[in-house]
Amino acid sequence: MPVATKHNRLRTFLGALRNQMAPTECPRQKLRGLIRPPHPLQHSLKSTQLLRTVLLTTALCTSALLPAQHTAPLRIAFWNVENLFDAIDDSTTADDEFTPRGTRRWTTRRFEKKCNDVAKVLIAIGGDRLSATDQLLHAAPPAIVGLAEVENGVVLRRLCRATPLRAYGYRYIHYDSPDPRGIDVALLYRPALFTPLHARAIAVVDDSARRIHTRDILYTRGTTAAGDTLQLFVVHLPSKLGGAEGQRRRNIAAHLLYQSMMQAADSFPRAPIVAMGDFNSTPDEAPLRKALHLADCSRRDYSTRFVSLMACAEEHTGSYKYHGAWQYIDQFIVSSWLRQDISPIGLGAAHVYRGEACLTDDPRYMGQKPFRTYSGWHYQGGISDHLPIYVDLYHY
Predict the structure, then answer these.
(1) Could you tell me the CA-to-CA distances from 187 to 219, 234, 236 in Å, in that order?
(2) Which contacts qualify for 95-101: CB closer than 8 Å, 24 or more apart?
(3) d(C-alpha 268, C-alpha 231), whole Å
């Protein structure tokens, strides 16, 4: 073949290729493109778009070839949101300080800001510690969220229906408890991922059947989208205020939680149990370990029915900072067999979410600390004195 003919065919091929890669142009611009190559920026933009397409296609193809255990995990979160009150005075509870005329000058605007901030953090938790592929395919807010220190149904309706959480269709389960300040626990869930079958509030009573004025324990049983039955407890045990009396009340509530979990385990042996909450005790404190009969997770001792995931969590961190020391008073207590790889259901490690919105500088003890709504009586616009925790449930 003559050399001129080869050059003509090559020129024709290159021209056609340039026309396919160039952005949409008018005929005159196309004519110029045959004579003068498009601007380098056009090549850059085209290459970027092509790269994004390739990455997305690769991720989708990879997900189709991955084994079953790589399906999207069911993320469960818990957060003590510290005094999530509305701005309305409730005459039946001691909520006066969280009203416009109260000592904290709590207003509807501040309440709405806090709800929006809580919602944004919950959404961000959905993508925390996920791989690039999982972030692309599975990043979404947790399927289940346990909350502590919410005042009432008004607060929960606002959180689920008038914040960015509305896009995810969250619903909630809540019962008013006899706590003097009117703060309760609650459960948020996404109906597409979790379907409640039964829920009830468990009153905290002593040996004489006298009710203790603290937060009730919330129990929920339901099924996941994968068809697994899941049993959930949300708790906020009495605080350490009051010394020995506070410890006694906390022990009573912890023992009642243990009895309730044992009953649930006996009634539905194949349904895993996840108890989440603010226990106001760390996993290594003897009274809590004794009351809940906890196995030693650090030694992989699963001789008892339940284990605290926080006993094996990262050292030198935690969900709450007290006098400069991080602690795990927010915990997941789970069926110990979930950690033994003997079932089609398994749990990952528990994590603390340490997003920027949840932390602020700690000038007194150095490092950072949770960014709370008030510093003393001064409003600083933070969210909570606790950090959220979360864990992933896998169906293999």
Answers:
(1) 9, 7, 12
(2) 95/151, 95/181, 95/182, 98/151
(3) 9
Q: How confident is the model at residue 195 (pLDDT cuts 50, 70, 90)?
A: very high
Q: Where in the chain is the domain with CATH 3.60.10.10?
A: 76-395
Tens of pLDDT along 335-378? Answer: 988 876 666 788 888 999 999 999 999 999 999 999 999 999 99
Three-state SS for 9? Answer: helix
Q: Do residues 389 and 353 make contact, with C-beta atoms less than 8 angstroms apart?
A: yes
CA–CA distances in Å: residue 64 to residues 54, 56, 57, 87, 252 = 15, 13, 11, 49, 50
Reported in sequence order, the residue ranges of 203-293 that DSSP labels E, i.e. its strands, are 217-224, 229-236, 273-278
- Distance, in Å, from the CA atom of 72 to the CA atom of 76, rounded to the nearest integer, reads 13
Q: pLDDT tens, 129-183?
A: 877 776 666 678 999 999 999 999 999 999 999 999 999 999 999 999 999 999 9
Tokens matching residue 139: 């990043």
- Half-sphere exposure (Cβ direction) of 343: Cα atoms closer than 13 Å: 17
SS3 336: helix
φ and ψ at residue 172, rounded to 5 degrees:
-140, 160
Per-residue pLDDT band for 57 (boundaries 50, 70, 90) equals low
Quickly name the fold that domain 76-395 has.
Answer: Deoxyribonuclease I; Chain A (3.60.10)
- Nearest CA to 276 among 225, 219, 323, 316? 219
Between CA 370 and CA 388 the distance in angstroms is 10
Whole-number Å distance between alpha carbons of 280 and 396: 34
Q: Which of 123, 131, 186 is nearest to 157 (CA)?
A: 186
CA nearest 110: which of 74, 140, 83, 132?
A: 83
Give pLDDT tens digits for 289-341: 999 999 766 666 666 789 999 988 877 789 999 999 999 999 999 998 887 66
How much is the pTM?
A: 0.81
3-state secondary structure of 325: strand
